[in-house]
Amino acid sequence: MIFLGTVHHPADYFYYLSQFAQGAYQTFMTVDLYTSENLSPTFVGWSNVLIGKLFILFGFSPMIAYHVSVAILTIFLFFTAYFLCLYVLKSRFFAIVSLYLFMLFHAFPILREGKPSYGDYWNNYAVPRVRIGAVPHQLLLSITSMLLVFGIFLWTQNKHSWKTLLLISCSSLILGSLQPALWALITGSMFFSIVISVRHTKPIPLNSLLLCVLATATGAIPIIYLTRLFQTLPFSQLKLWEATQQTLLTPEHFLVATGPIIVVALISIPILLKHSDIKRIFLVIFSTLSLTLFLSPLPRYIGISHVRFMSTLVILSLALIATHGLRPLLQAKQVWLKWMTYIFIIGLSLVLIPNHFKTIEISSTFTPNNLYQYLPVKDYDFFREIASKSQPTDTFLVIAPYNELFPALSGRRSYNGHPLLTIQSAKKDALAASFFADTQSNEAMRQFLLSNGIRWVISTQNQQKLKSAQWASIRAKTNNLVLYAIQ
């Protein structure tokens, strides 16, 4: 058996992996491989196909590319977070403290069915497997959100250079293409921060401010593109589904699921604002605005999931605010006060670190008999070799549940597979199930394939009608699967 690297929701993982697989014949643009319609390429998933392209050039498989890129981007995320903390706090020691709180951040421990666990809800960024998750494009958007904030901080502190302007422009463009809501939160919060800080600092020259606005506005370009694209199939299906993904949270549930460090951050806000500058004001405005919108009914009214207003950057901001609150205590002249603060941080660690082990346990529990997690090596090689026997434009009819993982491993189009990315998914699932049920006539089966432009069929060994069909010839097989070419 071979482990497929399925470290999060299988349907989403295989969809992202199918974009990596397209790196064999694409560079920036991708095609939805989970529906039979001949759709035009789009820029959705551009980062995945680009990373896949770079790794495939060096002989790596899409699956290896996916997980190596996760490792590289995770390391880069921590370095970016550290340098942002260093710029805000102007101290290596307190930057490390802030980064430690960012990594330690977790929900309150609770008992679930009598066993140790932690407070949680769907897509909870307080949990490390979400904010530092194993999804390349999510790691990339977290990195670019920090770089965008860092770039704007530099510019507003009179660090005017073409490099800073390029950093702002590129970060904004990438973030706008990956997470429009986060781009809007950052730009909106930064605007209010600049307006408020003008009273306390020297005003930014108008021409410099205009350049910064223009650079940041590059994020609006992909947002306009995505807004129009998501009005068309199959992406409109994703939009409708997301509108239903609302978790109603009570204040108690939210607090338990977010953890003790947010409490430290809330207490630290008055200390933070004693000396106001644009960096401190931004941390408070951005965190407050994000959490307020996250808990408000607004996401439901505008048809997006409330988790769009939470992010890794929010958790880092809360860690920075908490560090500002702990800083006077750690710098106090009274030795006992310093030691009490160190004891508090150690106690916080002892409370939260078991949650991290629980998270690892949940995230790394795999079952060898789960087809979405493990596949016989011969079947894996069978799917990988299909790419050399077919063209990228060919459509395959694949028996369930192999149809979900087939595009990810082969880079080829499946007639159906992902419930949100297959156009008329329910209808196609029913037609595919009927085809493989061995209840139709040979002529009806052939007409179905021809009318849908299906050139290849992948079935199990026990499909008797296919074995006897004169219009289907066997091209490859394993102990479990058979590849038929349709004539």
Detail the topology: elements first, then pairings.
Elements lengths: L1 E2 L6 H12 L24 H12 L4 H28 L2 H13 L4 E4 L2 E4 L9 H4 L4 H21 L5 H17 L1 H18 L8 H11 L3 H10 L5 H9 L7 H8 L1 H13 L5 H18 L2 H5 L9 H19 L4 H29 L10 E2 L1 H13 L5 E4 L3 H9 L2 E2 L10 H11 L6 H10 L2 E7 L3 H5 L3 E6 L3 E6 L1
Parallel strand pairs: 5-6, 5-7
Antiparallel strand pairs: 1-4, 2-3, 7-9, 8-9
Describe the structure.
With 487 residues, this protein is an alpha/beta fold. The protein has 2 domains: 2-60 and 376-486, no CATH class; 69-363, no CATH class. It has 22 helices and 9 strands. It has helices at residues 10-21, 46-57, 62-89, 92-104, 128-131, 136-156, 162-178, 180-197, 206-216, 220-229, 235-243, 251-258, 260-272, 278-295, 298-302, 312-330, 335-363, 377-389, 402-410, 425-435, 442-451, 464-468, and strands at residues 2-3, 109-112, 115-118, 374-375, 395-398, 413-414, 454-460, 472-477, 481-486. A 5-stranded mixed beta sheet has the order 6-5-7-9-8. A two-stranded antiparallel ribbon has the order 1-4. A hairpin with a 3-residue loop joins strand 8 (472-477) and strand 9. Helix 2 crosses helix 3 (62-89), helix 8 crosses helix 14 (278-295) and helix 14 (278-295) packs across helix 16 (312-330). The radius of gyration is 26 Å and the shape is elongated. The mean pLDDT is 94.
